DNA sequence: GTGAAAGCGCTAACAC
DNA sequence: GTGTTAGCGCTTTCAC
């Protein structure tokens, strides 16, 4: 395995000079640098990251902690982090909780994250209070993407506004009887996004002085399956049923769409359906939604982290991401309107 | 920052003993071990991975090279790798190509992958011939998941069989005029999966002595959007149109479903649709498909890698993963049958 | 602009 | 069962 001193010897310089030359530091004459780069090249020299990590204390690696990796938001976000990172020669170390929420014994202070990364990007997830504390205890740039976490900087859309605006869209179309399908707001866990969206729904409904039928409030877990299941329960409601259903995610809304079709419920004639997210499937299915871009949110978060690492103190801060109501074919005025 | 000798001093032993105790190596008396673990605990000691990487030459990190991270197969697979890895204290370093295929200047021999990982898991993707060569040149356990790559061990389903069996399912139902929607088989790139699936389609059709209308062969890129687009072109075919369409992925099949609905084409009455993959959306939509499980395929691949690293030579080998035809509501005998 | 040498914090012989 | 010590391969003062 060719090391730095092999290069040094071959180029007739010291290891210190090789080190500087390779890393593009100043104080190396152009001629020397060129020669070193050339010898390094044909010796096939690749610096040992382990050695330089040890010497510098920097890992040039960012950790990404994600509750899931095979769900829309998270996949998109991870792609964003990766883009930003690899452009700059950083590595991405992925920690996937795989939906596990129980035995994450002190995740953050443990070897897992500690000393293996220079900064941490947390993807919106449920956190136990003590986990949040651990999070704050690690001395490392930290940002969360996709939802607020107490005491942390985060980048993401205004979820309240998102839920509110799709509900208002429905109301604006003339719907007076609206069903809600939201994510479960397990109180024990600080997964605030579902809760915030629920508030947006509720406030929009109440502001319009409409009644909210408690039987028409369904809970899902942001998956298609839970959308299907919710629609099944929807069909058990006595007629007249709500003329619209507002879902807290596109995936759930798609489930609703699929199950509606199965029951011969026409969308939007019999039922208007809206989601939140901007999932590609939703676009193809003609789903009205509030669009957001997890990839660029994650890029933004990563940029902040990198800037902070680079010494720009205060680079990490909360930022609200763009969102946009996209009206497609799944919404229309109610039949009787 | 508390280091190994702080622990050694506090526990009144040598660093060597601390090292053994922490890593659970033998030759440490239970009493000593307990005391060391305790002091380490309350000193908040976390070993420096950089130092131990340097000393051992092992990174305890597996690299995952993926063309995409926000697509079904890849997200599922990454989740699988992660499960297997974190259970055993390994790290997952993610390299996402983000669909980029052009400027991947000698990916594998570069610092990117080199010396940063102990093994590489490659997720099924297009590879330039020289990239395959570079791949073989790196001296590191390697396995590919999700599709064959020349000269590499791989785990994945039999794509030929998958395509063949969904096509035969259609034929068995009585369809005589079948459209095909396959992934593009860019000849320049060794992304063999699309090609293999195409062959499966074709052979099944020919074996049944049916004609294949070249105009009824569409190409997509495995996305929903391309399914929508293909269905649009399908509708431009002169009647009588094919009574079924076999798609090389569920995502494309879903696109077909969405667009069919838009044109008032009833599935399966007017058109039977099949996919390949076992996407959750497909399940909810009632799509007939050949199911596969990328997560367990990736776990399997990871296990092999880990075994190989562990000294079990020959642990990495090719393996065929399970697949299963799942008949749902999107297929039925043709109307005229 | 370049070199010598002292670490960085562990691990792995080897000795006891 | 435990301690000593020499590295692992870089980076980084500090001289020159």
UniProtKB/TrEMBL annotation, chains A, B:
Gene3D superfamilies: 3.40.50.2300, lambda repressor-like DNA-binding domains. Residues 2-56 form the HTH lacI-type domain. It comes from the Bacteria. InterPro entries: HTH_LacI, LacI/GalR-like_sensor, Lambda_DNA-bd_dom_sf, Peripla_BP_I. One of its GO terms (molecular function) is DNA-binding transcription factor activity. The keyword Nucleotide-binding does not apply. Keywords: DNA-binding, Transcription, Transcription regulation. The keyword Protein transport does not apply. It holds the Pfam family LacI. This is LacI family DNA-binding transcriptional regulator.
